[in-house]
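LAB NOTEBOOK - FOLDING QUEUE
OPERATOR: T.R.
BATCH SIZE: 2
PURPOSE: Compare the predicted structure-token outputs for two unrelated chains run back to back under identical settings.
PRIORITY: normal
REVIEWER: second-year student, initials M.K.

ITEM 1
FIELD SEQUENCE / FIELD STRUCTURE:
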Amino acid sequence: MSKFPGVQLVGDFESDLPVIVLFHSSLSSSKQWWALTSLAKASYRIINIDLLGYGEAAEVEDPMSYDFAVEKKRFVSVLQQLSIEKYHLVGHSFGGALALKLAVESPNNVLSLSLFEPVAFHLFEPQSEEYREAVTFSTTVLNNTPHKAAEVFTNYWNKPGFFVGLPHKMKTLMAADMPKVNLDFQALMAERYAVDDISIINAPVLLMSGIKSTHLAHQIIKMLSGAFKHVTLKSFNAGHMAPVSHAQEVQAEIYQFIENS
């Protein structure tokens, strides 16, 4: 059992093996990275984090002030206690946006950055169609009942009718997590760094997307692809949830990228 609540430590932390840090998407948990963890555990130390409100992590103590700084504080505390300075960062969706923020703020600590459709909505110009779409989407989720909000959210990132086909137990669990999803939107839209700030990242970047994903996700990838200095683009015949729905394929690609970085 990890000595850090909601943080799974995999591998030999008595060694000096390189470190991989994993951040999952909203409505998910650290368990989504099972394939990558399996591939990397013999050669890396892995810090697999349940973001607050998900998995084994605690709930958010002060919802009104929740932002990425709250998650960063947890992350930095783990690194300090383990005496880790450099690491490979991996993130998906909300976790990808968090990983991107951490890389912007501590670029010299990042060995590589692997992102699957990071939902860094705040990077869109406020007058843009994409920004308006992101605000409309988040507002629709916020203003609905938990069950309906879960349906809107999961259908948007998967396909129309996706939620209806899920088992009742899963629907109930997703609905219960919707207050945290709303806090995730809150954290995303509170960010203030700009696209130009991303150029500070010198580490190699793997930027991934799903061919079947949404317009908003594709526009984020398009915007970010021109912002990094050293970027590799990779697409999969899947949607936004490819790291979960196509876990072995996507996570094997991430592992190979880290190995070659």
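ITEM 2
FIELD SEQUENCE / FIELD STRUCTURE:
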Amino acid sequence: MQADLVLEGGGVKGIGTVGAVLGLMERGYAFPRIAGTSVGAVVAALVAAGADTRQLRGAMGRLELSQVPDRMPPHVPLISEALALFTRNGAYEGDYLKDWLDRELQALGVTTFGDLRREPDGDDGNLHDDQRYKLVVLATDITRGRLLRLPWDYHRFHLDPDRQSVADAVRMSMSIPLFFEPQQLTDPVTGETSVVVDGAVLSNFAVEIFDRTDGRQARWPTYGVRIMPDLPTGMDHVFPTLGLPLPPPFEVLKKVVVTAFVGNDQTHLDRPDVRDRTITIDTAEVGITEFDVDPEMVQALIHHGREAVDAFFADQPG
């Protein structure tokens, strides 16, 4: 069976996404195309590179979550975070996760998006050649004020999509504002540089990204995997505060940021055609930046992901 797949971002909550993807694979699903934001892009990249259930579990087993918040020198708690925020606009470098993903992808034979090209197979007639890839990574260009769908939008920077690093694109997508250092994307022709942050700022759950636009019937379904809570009850599970209490005025800022991350997608989910193809995982037990989560919680989140898949198909008609 085939299905396109869209994976929501949400930091550590994304461990549940791994469980859902494993559950889908164990049901016999393969994914011609897969899109993801932030941690969803991490899982999506591994699956697009051809990881099977064994390889996906192995890759996640080699990820040391406690190393993901990688401090810059002098590597002193709070001091390093404060220095990084003022000098690099992000508390942590984010290099550990990018380097881990790069190694895992290379082991699967993937380095650049050129390794993830797909041949046309009854595709949407409106798709351009630079949209024929197995993977789409969502990021936010805060210089130009627009969503980036990589590799689809590299042409806007006069860059050859086939030559761009998959791990670099995922690193851009996971740049949680203030938490991870933002990334840059430079146009070699104009010399203009954009600052790029987490795709969740504009689209954390782009479940419609693979929908046909040529009026023809879809060849197979698109499923979305959602890990973020509905608002307002999930407000405190979304915004990372680096373990520091927020002064009252910043509570308003927190709500603005959370709404930017989740509000647009939550409104979109009110449409029956979106909710009906969405696998929703209960991840309330963990926050998006709780990288010190214990092994028991990791297994619980994976179990929740599998349970969500079972519940989703149990509710399907027929």
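REVIEWER COMMENT (ITEM 2): The longest strand covers residues 135-141.
FOLLOW-UP: none requested
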